[in-house]
Amino acid sequence: MGVPKFYRWISERYPCLSQVLKEHQIPEFDNLYLDMNGIIHQCSHPNDDDVHFRISEDKIFADIFHYLEVLFRIIKPRKVFFMAVDGVAPRAKMNQQRGRRFRSAKEAEDKIKKALEKGETLPTEARFDSNCITPGTEFMARLHEHLKYFVNMKISTDKSWQGVTVYLSGHETPGEGEHKIMEFIRSEKAKPHHDPNTRHCLYGLDADLIMLGLTSHEAHFALLREEVRFGGKKSQRACAPEETTFHLLHLSLMREYIDYEFSPVKDKISFEYDIERIIDDWILMGFLVGNDFIPHLPHLHINHDALPLLYRTYMAILPELGGYINENGHLNLKRFEKYLTRLSDFDREHFSEVFVDLKWFESKVGNKYLNEAAGIAAEEARKNKQKKQKAQENAICLAALEKNKGEMTSKIVVEDEPEDDDLFETEFRQYKRTYYMTKMGVEVVSDDFLADQAECYVQAIQWILHYYYHGVQSWSWYYPYHYAPYLSDIHNIGELKIKFELGKPFMPFEQLLAVLPAASKDLLPKCYQHLMISQDSPIIEYYPPDFKTDLNGKQQEWEAVVLIPFIDEKRLLQAMESCNKCLKEEEKRRNTHSACLMYWYDKDAEFQYLSPWPEKFPAIEKCHTRYKTIPLDAWHVEITHNKITKINKSALYFCGFPTLKHIKHKFYLRRSGVQVFQQSSHGENMILEIIADKNWKEQVVENVASSVLGKRVFVNWPHLEEARVVAVSDGETKFYLEEPHGTQKLYMGNAVPPTKVAYLADKEQSMWLKDVQGISEHYQKRKGIIIHETSIVVYAQLLTGNRYQLNQNGEVYLEKQWSKQVLPFVYQTVVKDIKAFDSGFSNIKTLNDLFPPGSTAFMLGSPYYGCMGEVQDSHDVITEGRIRVVFNIPCEPQLDHLIQNQHKYCVKYNPAYILASRLGVSGYLVSRFTGSIFIGRGSKKNPHGDHKANVGLNLKFNKKNEEVPGYTKKVGNEWMYSSAVEQLLAEYLER
Fold first, then answer.
1. What DSSP element (H or E) covers 225?
2. What is the mean pLDDT of the segment spanning 797-823?
3. DSSP class of residue 530?
4. Handedness of CA 482, 485, 487, 493 (dihedral sign)
C-alpha cells in the first residue's frame, strides 16, 4: 500500500486523528511495541540521495540504542516493552521485498554512476548496502547481539526499565515485526484475566499498522510515528530523535470516525448495527486498493477517490446482504461476491469515459486508430490474426454506425440502442482482454483463465484476512501475478472452497537468495554467490541485471510494479542443496530460527555481561537481568479462540485517549480544504459542527464564572486536556481568581474561590475578539470543527504533572501542577464533570512509602543541590516529617584563585577601528575580511561567474548573528575583535 498516500488521505478525511506529541500531554501506556526495522533504516542510511554519505557500524548501533532510549523515555510503558525485528517473512511478502530490494540496488547504482559522470570523487570506503537489513546477514547477526547487550545494560542500570517486562523478537524469529507484535497481543487477549482497558502504543511507519491496530478491537490503542511532511523540497531525515516531531494517531478516534462514515446505513439494515463488524469490513475494503501482498484492482487508486467509492458501494449493498462480509477474519464469499458485483459497475463507468473520449478522437482522425479506440494495442492485434479480424469487424460496425448516424430517424435510433449496448459490451470485453494480454502476457483470455484469476484473487483476500486476524495460515502461499483482475471478472466465487497448507517458513539463507539482487551477492555466504552471477546457474534467470518497471496508473516511481520473475521455491531449494554442505560453522548458526527472548530485572542476580564489541561498548560489570526463551508457537492462538474485545461504552474517560463524545455535535462530509499538512486538502473532510446548547445564549458570564472558576475542566476537545480555570470573560467583563502568584490550589465541591471582577478596556476587548477569531479559525481550518458564535471565553492553565506533598497529619498526597502560562479556550469546547480514570499513583500514602530505606534520593535544596543519596532507616524521625539520607558529596574544584585572577586570563576585545589603525587598513576591510567574501571567475556573458569561492576568514556571521568564541564578540550592534584576530589578519594581509 502507498504508505504516505493512505496516511495522508485518512488524516485529511478525518482531521482530528493525529496530534503532535507534547511533553506533559502524553497519555499513560501499559505496553509499548516497536516495529524495529523503521528505526534500523533511519539510523543506518538517513539520506539515500547523498552518494558521499558513509557511516561506521558502531555509530549505527549507538544511534539505534539512542533512538530506543528516547522512544522509551517519551512513552514510559508501565508493563511491557516489545521490540520486534523483521524475521523471515511469509512467501506472499517476499515478492514485494524482492521488488523493493532490486529497485533500491539499481537506484543506488544509477546515483553513483551519475555522480561519477559529474566528476565527483566518492569516498573509498564501501557504502552501506541497505539490503543487509534482511534476516540472516552478518550485519543483522551482529545487531542482534548488540540489542541483547543493550537490553541487559538498560535493565541493569536504568530504574525506569526495571519494572517492565522486555521482549526482544529478533531477526532469527520468523515473521514480520508488526505481525509478531499482533500475535503477542492476541495471545494476551486470550488469557482469562486479560484487562480490556490495557493501553497500547505501537511505533512504526507503515500505513497497514492502522488496520492491524483496528483488528485488535482494543479501546485504547495509539500509533506513534515521526511527522510526515508533504510538499516542498525533499529534506534529509533528522536522525537525532530529539530533533524529531512525533505524532500520535489515535485509533479510539478512528473507530468513532468510521462509525460516522457508515452511520447512514444504520436505519437501512434489518440486522444489528455493530461498529466492530463495520470496522472489520472497513479493513477488508482497504485491501482492495492494494497492499504488500496483492496489487491494486485496475484503476482503483487512493488519490482518485477509490476509497469513498468502496464505502458508498458498501452502504448501498449492505441492506441486501443480510449480514457482514468479514466475519472475524473469515470471508463470507456469497456476500463478498454481491459486493464485488455491485462494485464492478465502476469498471464499466471507467471504460465508458475512455470509450467516449476515444470515439471523439476517432471522429477527428478517422478510423485509422479504431483499434486503439477500442482499447487494443495495434502491436498485439498483429500478433494474433483471429483477434485482428474481430477488431476489424468491430471497426466496420462502428464506422457504419458513425456514417449513418445523421441519416437515421428517431425510430431507428431507438431500435438501435440495444445494438449500441452490445457494441459497448463487445468493446468493453476487448478492452479487458487487451489488459490481460499486454500486462500478463497471455495469448488467449479464456473463461478458465478468468476463473483462475478470480479464484486467485479471492484466495489472496482470504489469506490476508487470516494473516491480520489469526496469523500466518500458509508460509508458502503467494499471489502469482504482478497485476489484479478486473472487478467485473471476479464472479462465481460463492461456492469456492479455500484451504491453505501451513507449510514452514524459509530458512534465513533461503530468503536471502529469494529476495536479494545479484548486486548484493556479498551479503550471502560465498558458497551461494555463484547461483546469482554464473551463467551456468540453474536459477540465473531470477537475477536479471536489468529489468522494467510499470507505473500501472500510479504517479511515483517507488509505486511502480517491478517486473522481475517470481521465484520457484522447489528450483531454488534444489539449487541450494549442493551448496549447503560448504557452509562454515558460523554460517550454519546464522541459518537457524530461534525463539523470542523475555527479559526482566532481578536485584538478586549479579554477574558480568561481556560486551559484543569491547573497544566500543563497555562490559556490564553488575548485570541484574534474567531472561527466558519463548517457544516459537507459544503465542499462537487457535482461530476458534480468537477473542473480540467488547468495548464498554459507558467506561471511564482515559486521559490522553481522545473521544468525540462529551460535546453535542452533528457530522457530515464536505470539501472544506482543511489543512492537516502543509497544504489544504482537496478531498472530502469529516466536518464536526457543535450544536449550540439552548441555554448558551442565555448564560451570563457571572453564572459560568461561579461554576468553573478555580475548578478542574477539560479543554481542547476532542483531544481533551485537564486544566484549571483562572478567569472567565464575555468580552466586556472579566471574572478572575484573586490569589497569590504561583498558587496551585483547586477549589473542590462547593468551595467558593476568592474572585474579582474587572471591566475590559477597548484594547482588551479587541484582544478578546482576536482570541475568539484565532481559536475559531484553528478549529475550522485544522480540525474540521465548526464552533459557531462564541459568547464566553475561559482562561485556564494546562496540567503539567503531579507533585507529592506532605500534609500536617504526615500523609502523602498528590498535588496537581499547573502551567504558569494562561491560555484562552472558548466555553462551548470546554467539558466539565468527566469521571476520569485514576492512574494508580495514589498507592503511596505515607512518607515511608515514598522514601523506603535503601531507595535513591536527590537533593533539591542548598548547599548540595543535585547530589545523589541513599535513604536510611528513619523510623525515629519520620513522624516529624523528616527522613535520613546519606549523600555522596563530590569534591568541587577550587576556583578561588581563578576567580581572583580572571582579569589576567580573559580575552580582551577591541573595536574594528583600533585593529584597522594598527594594521594600516580601513575599518570596512577589517569587517569584510573577518566575515565572508565570495569571488568568482566571471566573463562577459556571465559576470558573476559559475563557481564561487569564499576567501573570508568566517569569524563572524551577521545574518545568523553568530560569533566565534575567542575571536569575535558582538556588543550591542558593534563587533569586537580579539588580539588573535589581529594576528590572523596581519598574516592574511602579508599573503
1. strand 221-226
2. 87
3. H
4. negative
Return all residues near 245 (Cβ < 8 A) that are at least 6 apart. 20, 21, 226, 227
| Contact assessment for residue 753 and residue 709, using Cβ atoms and an 8 Å cutoff | yes
Nearest to 814 by CA among 824, 822, 804: 804
pTM of the model: 0.83
How many residues belong to the chain? Answer: 991
CA-wise closest residue to 948 among 940, 936, 938, 939:
936
State the Cα–Cα distance between residues 204 and 86, nearest whole angstrom.
12
SS3 936: strand
Tell me the angle at which helices 3-13 and 208-215 cross, rounded to the nearest 10 degrees.
Answer: 60
State the SS3 of 570-613.
HHHHHHHHHHHCCCCHHHHHHCCCCCEEEEEECCCCCEEECCCC
End-to-end CA distance of the chain: 62
Answer yes or no: are the C-beta atoms of 11 and 676 closer than 8 Å: yes
Q: Where are the alpha helices (DSSP H) in 158-229?
A: 177-189, 208-215
At residue 774, the 3 state secondary structure works out as helix
Packing angle between helix 275-287 and helix 306-321, nearest 10 degrees?
A: 130
Element of type H or E holding 288 = none
* Model pLDDT for residues 645-702, shown as the tens digit of each residue: 555 555 567 788 899 988 999 999 999 999 888 888 889 999 999 998 766 655 788 9
DSSP string, 3-43: HHHHHHHHHHHSTTSEEE--TT-PPP-SEEEEETHHHHHHH
* Each residue's pLDDT tens digit, 876-903: 888 888 899 999 888 888 888 888 887 7
What lies within 8 Å, CB to CB, of 835 at 6+ separation is: 652, 653
* Whole-number Å distance between alpha carbons of 897 and 974: 32
251-284 exposure pattern, b = at least 16 Cβ within 10 A, e = fewer: bbbbbbbbbbbbeebeeebeeeeebebbbbbbbb
What distances in angstroms separate CA 867 from CA 160, 870, 890, one per listed residue?
Answer: 19, 10, 8
Any idea where the domains of the chain sit in the sequence?
22-263, 290-394+420-504, 658-837, 847-887, 897-990
Dihedral sign from CA coordinates of 470, 475, 480, 483? positive
Q: What is the DSSP secondary-structure string of 486-520?
A: PGGG--S-TT---------PPPHHHHHHHH--GGG
Nearest CA-CA partner of 15 in 782, 977, 816: 782
Three-class secondary structure of residue 784 per DSSP: coil
How far is the C-alpha of 719 from the C-alpha of 779, rounded, in Å?
12
Helix (H), strand (E), coil (C) string for 669-707: EECCCCCCCCCCCCCCEEEEEECCCCCCCCCCHHHHHHH
Distances (CA, A) of 567 to 94, 96, 501, 522, 541: 9, 12, 19, 20, 10
Beta-carbon count within 10 A of 180 CB: 23
Task: Find residue 231's DSSP bridge partners.
Answer: none
Backbone angles phi and psi of 163, in degrees to 5: -100, 10
Residue 144 CA to its chain's centroid (Å): 24
Given the candidates 3.10.20.90, 3.40.50.12390, 3.40.140.10, 2.40.160.40, the CATH classification of the domain at 22-263 is 3.40.50.12390
Q: Check: CB of residue 131 under 8 Å from CB of residue 104.
A: yes
Prior bond to 853 cis, omega within 30?
no
Residues 397-414 have a mean pLDDT of: 42
User: CATH fold of 658-837, please?
Assistant: paz domain (2.170.260)
